Amino acid sequence: MVEHGDIRVVRRGGSKINFRQPVITNDSRLLLCASGHSVKVFSTSTEECVHELRGHTDLVTGVVVKPSNHLQAYSCSLDGTIRLWDFTDGILIKTYDIGYSIYSIHTSAFHKGVVFTVTSTISDKKSESFQLVAVHLPQSGDQLVKAPELSAVISDVSSNPGAIVFGRGGEYIASANGLHLEVFFFKKQKTYRFFLKKDTKTGGKNTFMCVAAHPKDDCIATGHEDGKIRLWRNFNHQKEYTYSTLHWHSNAVSSMCFTPEGTNLLSGGVESVLVQWRYNDVSQRDFLPRLGAAITHIAVSPDGALSCTSHSDNKITIIQGIKVSAVLQGLVTGESVETDLMVDPRSKALVLNGKPGHLQFYSLKRDKLLYNLDIVQQEYIHELGLQQFKVVKVAFDASGNWMATVEERKQKDAEQELNLKLWAFDEQTQSFVLNTTVADPHESRITAMCFCQAAASQTTMLISASEDGHFKAWQLRRLAPDDGPSCLCDFVGAYRGLVPHCCCFSADGSLLAVSFQEVVTVWSPASWELLATLSQPPKAIRNLCFGRLSCSKYLLGTTDDHLLCCWNLLTCSLEWSTSMDISLLLGDPLTENIAAFCCHAGSTDLFVFKPSEPRPVFSLKAVCSGKVTHAVFAPREEMLESCEESSQWLNHSQLYFLTQCMDLMTFTTKAEEEKLMASSKQLLIDDSVAMTPFYLLLGKHRKGESGAAASGESAGRPPLPQGSGAVKELLRTPAHVLPSTSFLCSMFVKSLLVSVGDASEESKPAEEEMESEKEEEDSEGDMESSASRPERGSLARRSAEPAAPPLTKAQLRELRRVKKLDHSWLTGLLRS
């Protein structure tokens, strides 16, 4: 995380959920997985993210459920800490500071108060080496605890958590690394090592890839690079060990796992097939094929009801029996992104390349994939060296009703194939439907494409520029009254045989700028007249961007000779220029701000500025390592109210960008981040809870209680807590460190009891009320006679006033009942 004043650069959405093996809870209701700097808790039934456990300051490298408490979990990170979470409520319980970067974590019920972690060792070798150490977690009431007591268990281990496993409930631990298998027995304090040759006679590769241990028998299963699985037995003897070989996978076995009872062994690899081996009869196998991508991890719930697989396309598949019950899909980034980052105007979703031949619509707010759209509409063939169609360009119009895509396929001995497709949004399916396909829209590769974003535009216009030296204007028209709109070419433009590289519309759609190498041409879309040409030094222009709102008269561009230029369109002259190696230039669609990512000394700097002002609005050095080539401004649903001048550019939109490592990053304010952290750390009590004695015990008294009612309490009754700090601490404190239940129960029961003095005082008005009821019942029969013989004074008064009708017995009882009702809830409702 990079921090500068009030601005922070953090991972927000789109993090990898397949980085480490996921964990399914004991009741199979929740799934935990590492995701960037946090741990995500998903519901296995609804696929929704229930909690996001935030607190680590670096990459989370492992998650395990605490063996002694199945409602808590440990997480480790490269920040050198182990954190204990109550994942059902999303509360951080304790932080253990180890002081070293942790690459994986392992636990066993056999070892209480101890966790096993993989840390790096100081070595003179060029390659980094790792060791397995036991960390003794001290018992302390503090939330931040130092854990300096470390003891080495196995040296020279793999950083891959799938290569280390406990066996028989923690009696031994097995570690596979390279070509050797190492088994350490805790009771004997003895280590056995087994080696394999590098290559077999048939050319197979024996490198260990993963390891699994049978929960009841002395059997270790190892997966290898050549796709074979070996079952090791009698490994507690150095020379008398044996192993049998299983083979189905055509490539490396990436993950294996035994079921809780040990009846089946699950394995997976690049074939996207989950193989289930019968432990007692390995010749019998069951398969779950077509899981979509290569399997990277396999996990099984402790009760055996569910299993899950992680995949290389940032997906977790939850399996019940032999059927897929749920899919948790993260943001698919792959090795590269061909399209630019776009925001769908309708759903506000991030749009970019997903699966091969697809576009993915990813919700940044919910951090969840909405859907994949098949653009190529051809079956993808997994074959090395086979050239297939790729989606390289995408654009949306201002309303989000139309989307344009470009797909291309390069072949060695044939011409390049191009397809331009127009997609219309369907209200019924809430997705895009193919409307028009234009085969070979240009003679060469398309370099740029954009829609006219003017809201008042009567027609939908699309511009495409190509290496063939032309740019084309496409318009959607109806050929017949009963037909739908179709895409037709309206204009073909060129300039002196030069190759166009980029194009963009002004905010009101009245101007179109197209760059032809070192020349910028300005066109009128209404008449297709060339209005002006802006020449530059002999270097090609890479980016173009119009100013907005008060800066709409400016046009900005970057060149290959590291210049940022700003032209004044009113005078058709260069307003200013500066020397900057800008890799990406983009404007905020809601403000005048322009963001420029500048490469410097192997890292990227960010400058946010307005074209009319010489001083940048915001600047930040070393945002990330490498070059940033993909970024987008995403409009906020709720505008921030930041008073700091350096962070006001984030009030309307949020800036997202992709690093070279394909990590999705964003800029956020410190107040916004602390608000999210506070919501994840504290358990908030809902104010709509009923007014019960237990509610009062927690310190939530009525606000409208009068002083007389408070002074009327008996001294014999213990006072209830008045929302003190102790009560607040009681709410935040985990259940396992609270006082005994008998102590809390006795305090609660005493608060409900009434003393003898109060009972005698309350009984007197009750008796008086009963006597008054009796007298009223007796007097109701004589009401008419008493009314016919009034006193003279009262008779004189009643003669002047209209006589009121007498109340019946039922009305008197209803009146007494209404007087006894508690109307304090109405007062609280009105005050809220």
Automatic annotation (TrEMBL):
<feature type="compositionally biased region" description="Low complexity">
    <location>
        <begin position="706"/>
        <end position="716"/>
    </location>
</feature>
<dbReference type="Pfam" id="PF23869">
    <property type="entry name" value="Beta-prop_WDR75_1st"/>
</dbReference>
<feature type="repeat" description="WD">
    <location>
        <begin position="201"/>
        <end position="232"/>
    </location>
</feature>
<dbReference type="InterPro" id="IPR001680">
    <property type="entry name" value="WD40_rpt"/>
</dbReference>
<feature type="compositionally biased region" description="Acidic residues">
    <location>
        <begin position="768"/>
        <end position="783"/>
    </location>
</feature>
<dbReference type="InterPro" id="IPR011047">
    <property type="entry name" value="Quinoprotein_ADH-like_sf"/>
</dbReference>
<keyword id="KW-0539">Nucleus</keyword>
<keyword id="KW-0677">Repeat</keyword>
<feature type="repeat" description="WD">
    <location>
        <begin position="246"/>
        <end position="277"/>
    </location>
</feature>
<keyword id="KW-0698">rRNA processing</keyword>
<dbReference type="InterPro" id="IPR015943">
    <property type="entry name" value="WD40/YVTN_repeat-like_dom_sf"/>
</dbReference>
<keyword id="KW-0804">Transcription</keyword>
<feature type="region of interest" description="Disordered">
    <location>
        <begin position="759"/>
        <end position="812"/>
    </location>
</feature>
<feature type="compositionally biased region" description="Basic and acidic residues">
    <location>
        <begin position="789"/>
        <end position="800"/>
    </location>
</feature>
<dbReference type="InterPro" id="IPR057644">
    <property type="entry name" value="Beta-prop_WDR75_2nd"/>
</dbReference>
<feature type="domain" description="WD repeat-containing protein 75 second beta-propeller">
    <location>
        <begin position="341"/>
        <end position="662"/>
    </location>
</feature>
<dbReference type="InterPro" id="IPR019775">
    <property type="entry name" value="WD40_repeat_CS"/>
</dbReference>
<dbReference type="GO" id="GO:0006364">
    <property type="term" value="P:rRNA processing"/>
</dbReference>
<dbReference type="GO" id="GO:0032040">
    <property type="term" value="C:small-subunit processome"/>
</dbReference>
<keyword id="KW-0690">Ribosome biogenesis</keyword>
<dbReference type="GO" id="GO:2000234">
    <property type="term" value="P:positive regulation of rRNA processing"/>
</dbReference>
<dbReference type="Pfam" id="PF23769">
    <property type="entry name" value="Beta-prop_WDR75_2nd"/>
</dbReference>
<dbReference type="GO" id="GO:0003723">
    <property type="term" value="F:RNA binding"/>
</dbReference>
<protein>
    <submittedName>
        <fullName>WD repeat domain 75</fullName>
    </submittedName>
</protein>
<dbReference type="GO" id="GO:0045943">
    <property type="term" value="P:positive regulation of transcription by RNA polymerase I"/>
</dbReference>
<keyword id="KW-0853">WD repeat</keyword>
<feature type="repeat" description="WD">
    <location>
        <begin position="53"/>
        <end position="95"/>
    </location>
</feature>
<feature type="region of interest" description="Disordered">
    <location>
        <begin position="706"/>
        <end position="725"/>
    </location>
</feature>
<dbReference type="InterPro" id="IPR053826">
    <property type="entry name" value="WDR75"/>
</dbReference>
